[in-house]
Amino acid sequence: MISSQTMAPQELLLPAKSGFILLTLFIALTLNLMPWPNWINWLLPDFVALLVLYWSIEAPRKMSFILAWCLGLMMDIANGSLFGQHALAYVILVYAGIAVHRRIQNFQIPAQLLHIAPLLLLTNCVVLLVRALADASYPGYSYFLSTLVGVALWPVIGFILKIPQRPRSDPSRA
Amino acid sequence: MERTPPPLFRTGPSALTRLIIFVTLSIALLVADARFNYLSLIRQVSSVAVYPLQQLATTPKQVWTYFSDLFISQTSLRKNNLYLSAQNLILANAAQEAEALRIENVHLRALVDAREKSPIPSVVAEILYAARDPFSRKVMIDKGLQQDIVAGRPVVDHLGVIGQISQTYPWLSEVTLITDKGHLVPVLNVRTGARAVIAGTGDDSRLELRFVPLASDFQKGDRLVTSGIDGIYPQGIPVAEVMNVERNSAALFATVDCKPLAGVNTDIQVLVLGPLPSVPERPTTPTPSNPKKKKGGA
Question: Tens digit of pLDDT per residue, chain A (174 long)?
């Protein structure tokens, strides 16, 4: 049984608007395509992957598979990676997010991180397997490091993305 | 915050079904791309949709470069100017020598009845961004099909070879760097004239020579230039410098570690070389007179 300390106090939030979800995903895609200095490049997490997972946990009915898949294809075109590599990863993330969303929504941040870190690493491993079968390339341990940076950014992303969903104070009382 | 409805209410196919559909689609695409290279055209068409986004994403960098150019200091300009005029003198001297050599060469070639080498046309391009695929070393440049860039063209900077065009889009092209794992360049050791094939390792600062016999003469500090026998890279462009040679008698080949000479991951401006003037046609039907004998000899 889960002790009451690991359960987050239920915060009442407005449902996220579809337009807002699309906007954040668009920004994430732009961030991914931005040229960064080399030393940041291998630390930088995949923002689209993080947001796809985030929205499939927070708004599982609005984050569609086809959207994630298309985002993945766009990443593949822009990066010149194998066609379908990112698409596969994002689709798996959507499924994983939908599968665990009921549980994760009730947890506090440390417990949430313990859930999403394995999910992101699992997705990495699937992509690694695909690339190993395709052309036997291995990018080194730094590949997983960027995912861990992404996990560390999770609370920040959660905080920022919840701002527009917090209900404003009751206008009739003001 | 929202929750999925209980399975009592039907909301289309279940998540698992959708997962299976899209995973199958992705795997089909992956196989089509990796095994059969079917998707070049689809990539080109769909890249048009991504292009505005790529432009948007590179805008902050361009704005930053613009402003840092605008506020460049007087001292650094002056220093640069001095350096450039000194460099100019040296280069002018070299150019004169080269001109003399060229004329001499024309005469000599006329003597031996060899065809004169014509200069290779080239296009200056700018690197937009490095692809963020940890599995490969690729960059995107701002010239594409519209500027007659064709896949396979060599890309160089002022120091040497940086890579080869691997995919073209209408306004962009993708350059696979020589450090990309498995990318091969035929090279020539300047000191000895020995030929070899240099391969990328996936590490930005290391290349390795493939299939170098243990007894071959490679030393630390040897410069390797393109040999030109592949008909892709022009002859004599610097590629790498030998850093370390390891001869282990247990192995078949020597391990030769090299360092790329060109600024493979620091460049901004690069040069895409045009097609080589002439490559002799591959013999279409090789008919060895006695294949058995050949097999035994090898």
Answer: 455 555 656 667 777 888 999 999 999 998 888 877 777 777 888 899 999 999 999 888 888 899 999 999 998 888 878 888 899 999 999 999 998 888 888 888 888 899 899 999 988 888 888 888 877 667 777 778 888 899 999 999 988 988 888 777 665 654
The domain in which residue A33 lies consists of 18-165
Contacts of A95 in chain B (CB under 8 A): 15-16, 18-19
Confirm whether A72 is domain-assigned.
Answer: yes
Shortest distance between the Cα of B51 and any Cα of chain A, in A, equals: 8
Task: Say what the ipTM of the complex is.
Answer: 0.78
Residue of B nearest to A162 (CA): B1
Is the CB of B68 inside 8 Å of chain A's CB atoms?
A: no
* 3-state SS, residue B170: coil
What whole-number distance in Å separates Cα of residue B227 and Cα of residue B259? 17
Name the residue in chain B with its Cα closest to that of A166: B1
Distance of CA A128 to the CA centre of its chain: 18
**Rounded CA separation B151/B166 (Å):** 5
B219 vs B257: CA distance, rounded Å: 10
A78/B202 touch (CB, cutoff 8 Å), yes or no: no
Q: Closest Cα partner for B163 from B171, B174, B172?
A: B174
Q: Are B267 and B127 in contact (CB under 8 A)?
A: yes
Which domains can be identified in chain B, with CATH numbers? 120-275 (2.40.10.340)
Answer yes or no: is A6 within a domain: no
